[in-house]
Amino acid sequence: MLKVAIKFLILFFLLVTFQLNAQPGIKGGIAISGLQSSTEDFTQFLGYEVSWVQHGTSNPLFGLQLGLFYTVKFSDALSFQPELYFVQKGYQFDQTPLYNTNYSLRINYLELPVLLEYYLPLDWGFNPAIIAGPFAALKLSSDKQIKISNEEISGNVSSVNNLDYGLVFGINTEFAAWDGELIFDLRINWGFANIMTQPDEFISISDDAGTVKTRTATLMTGYRFNLDW
Hints:
The protein is mainly beta and 229 residues long. It is 11% helix and 60% strand. Strand 2 (57-73) and strand 3 (78-95) form a beta hairpin. The chain is elongated and about 60 Å long.
């Protein structure tokens, strides 16, 4: 079912690009992500492997965000911009001073933001804009890596749900370059979905396991091709 949904998203993205006479482009950059837990305890989702490590230092995970987009301009001030990305999100915990231990969770998603882009009426020689809109993401994989001194343990994490969704908001700017535009993009992804469920094999230690949601900042650069369809 997941593979069918992924194929449908890619096909839909490509078909709409041609039907709307849109201008396609590519973007790539760094995703800096974390996970927000309502209980500040990940043990019920990640197991006792993380129960003591999580009380050390929590750090964001640095990952990649790469993909395609297309732009449909409604006017000089407003455009519609669906996007399709491969993005890496997650979190990591460190207990370095005493135990030299690191636990990292990396989740790979196929993400579909659907954005509106408003160009600010400024005569600066480039085009700054505000971007905002919803996103939905399908999980491709979720893996853990535990480093204890010189040993490494890795494996799949079954507690991560298949779907994430939320809002995107940010700013970008465009410069005319060659026959298109060079783009610089800074944005925040604010997840609304609870992305974790306690596995059946785990022993419940609380009546309320709480919720876990994604928080991501991305910095990307890209290029839009101005094509005459």
